[in-house]
Specification:
Layout (H helix, E strand, L loop, with lengths): L1 E8 L20 E6 L6 E9 L2 E20 L13 E4 L3 E18 L7 E6 L6 E10 L5 E20 L13 E4 L3 E18 L4 E9 L6 E31 L13 E4 L3 E17 L6 E9 L6 E22 L7 E8 L16 E3 L3 E16 L30
Amino acid sequence: MNKLYYKIATAISTASLLAGSIVPGVYGSTTITITGNGSDSYNKADVEVDQTTYVSQINEANVQNTVYADASTGGNRANDNTGGDVSIETGDATSNVTIENSLNTNVAEVNPCCPGDTTLKITGNGSDSYNKIDVDINQEEETGTLIEQGNLANVNNWVDAYAGTGKNKANDNTGGDVSIETGDADIDVEISNALNANSATIGGSGSNDIDIEISGNGSDSKNKVYFDLDILTWLTQGNEANVQNTVYADAKTGKNKANDNTGGDVSIETGDADVNVDVSNLANFNSADLDACECVTDVDIKISGNGTDSKNKVDLDLEKILGVLQGNEFNCKNGVDACAEVYADAQTGKNKANDNTGDVDDPGIQTGDASVDVTVDNTANANVLGNADLPDFDFPDLEGLNVNGLILLLLAIFS
């Protein structure tokens, strides 16, 4: 009996496997007040926030599994014996090969994504004063939230499995019965490839209140508020999987010979020859849930009670850009049509009982069953946008790392 179990479970690079959380700087609640300043005063508040959050989760896995499995109880000989019974009885020959490849997983959770409350006030300043508030929250181009998740998996599984109980010989015996009885020859080959998955959740809910007030300022005063909020969130998810599965499975109980025997009964009875091959390829899944980041923005602007000939201005610019790019490429057997190249052969035949001499019973040959079962399952390339789950995908169990949501990366402040 020959049993082989080969498993590779990779969660793969330190860029994507962090036992903890990363919290980028958050633009929290902000209050700016210019108030109670005298006549002819010049008052200005400039606030500029450039927020950059860049997270890159990149995995590359190159796996080659080569398995030679040989189980044999056959190849026995009982020849040229004189007197008495001659028998050959073999046990079972079983070859079990299991290969599991679980490769490349990225999980990112963005939380929170809503900015804090903003209160800007220019109140109660004297005549002829000049008062200005300039707030610029910039998250575009180089200063946005950029998330990149990518996986590359190259897998080559090569299995050569043989199980044999046959090729037994009982020839040229004289006297007595001659029998050959073989056990079963069984081969089970299972290859399971689970490759490349990205999951990103942009979460965090809440409201962002913007209150701007210009009131009670003296005559001939100049009062300005500039508030500019530019938000860019860009998510890229990409996978490439190159898979080649080659299986040679050969189970034989036949090719037994009982020839040229004299006297007694001659019989050959073989067991069953069974081959089961199961190849499963799961590759390339992207899931992005952006619905949880619908920040509600309430804007309250008030200009009232300012003096004669005062000049009051509020310039409000709010812009939000959210982009998602999901892409997959799945090449099975390096672009050739066949995702799994399987050669399966089960034989119980080619037995010989020739030229035997005896006066009791006729020579007999009785074979077992020969069966081959081959299953190839391919599931590849799925993109999910919205509140939906990935298809069933058997990845390594990372719960023991005590990470919140497998791998928790707090990525962005706005989205």
